[in-house]
Amino acid sequence: MVHMNQGEGDTSYARNCGIQNAEQNRMKPLIEAAVVDLCTSTSLPRNMVITDLGCSSGSNALVLVSVAIEAIKSYCIQLQKNPPEMCVFLNDLPNNDFTMVIKNLVTLRQGNEPFVVTGVTPGSFYERLFTSGSLHLVCSSSSLHWLSKAPEVLTMNHIPAYNIDEHARREMLPMILEAYAQQFRNDFTHFLKLRAKELLSGGRMVISITGRHSDGFSSKLFHIWETIVQILSVMVLEGVIDKAKFDSFYMPMYGPSSEEFRDIIQEEGSFVIKEMLVRDFTSDADSALFAPKMFMCHMRAVFEPIIVQHFGEVMEEFTRTAERQWRVDGILMDQLGRLAWLCVSLTKA
Ligand SMILES: C[S@@+](CC[C@H](N)C(=O)[O-])C[C@H]1O[C@@H](n2cnc3c(N)ncnc32)[C@H](O)[C@@H]1O
User: Topology of 18-348 in CATH?
Assistant: First the structure.
């Protein structure tokens, strides 16, 4: 059921994806380096298959694959060779707004004729999407922190992910964090195994997710969704939303620490880490993106569908409550300061 706000209106993901775009720009050198490795490790391949998993909608959908195409072309220009044929696939869940994505893919193909052909591969990246040994390069930005589902140990036992009572919340935090960490471990391990089947030997993967700086339970905040849930908890206290409804709300999302992320990759064993970058959530991005009003637009574009599915039409009140809360000086930046972008470049072993 996960999708971002569709269309191209004021609240759409297409119009409010600047924070994620800043991270895509930071991924660029890693994708370029991966492409050069792919082109030089053996002889230049005759054809290459490239995919972006969790592409969403709007201009961001084509950024990573375009970086890869340009890197391949400029490598070939330097060597005075014809570029290989490139097959570019964009993936997201079936409820994603693929309308503009498809039109933009056609433009991308036409701008790179006759070397590029394009397609979409709808489905979950927690399932097989491509044939065995067919992929050269997998990219993914701001998507793999979405889990396949919320941890069943919480949902089946009706254990709220975020207790309104602060004391109870603090007591439950280790158990909640462990449930989410385990779900991420299972999902990400499964993802690595699937992609290892689909990539050819020496194939590359460059992915970036939101995680957190500190490990262990000392971190008060373990994912950006807590920022959202805190706002919803204020709405419960103000009688705008029902407490029972709030207690049964689970965000299928988890941000690991860099150590956790690295451990899972190493333990799964199909990939070698070429490079790993850990950066502040707000680094190298326009600070205006983190002003309360603007930040709210970004959060709304990502979380509105999942909030409305569960609570109904509460977004106007949600927006007002968030802006009121975040007006308290420093509170938002303090929460965001605990988050980090984790970007990793991998080679199939
Ligand atoms: C915040 S958007 C990121 C979009 C784009 N990559 C960017 O950097 O702007 C996250 C995307 O991941 C997609 N997503 C979440 N879980 C997914 C899954 N299991 N399989 C495929 N896509 C998924 C969502 O539908 C959403 O479009």
Answer: Rossmann fold (3.40.50)
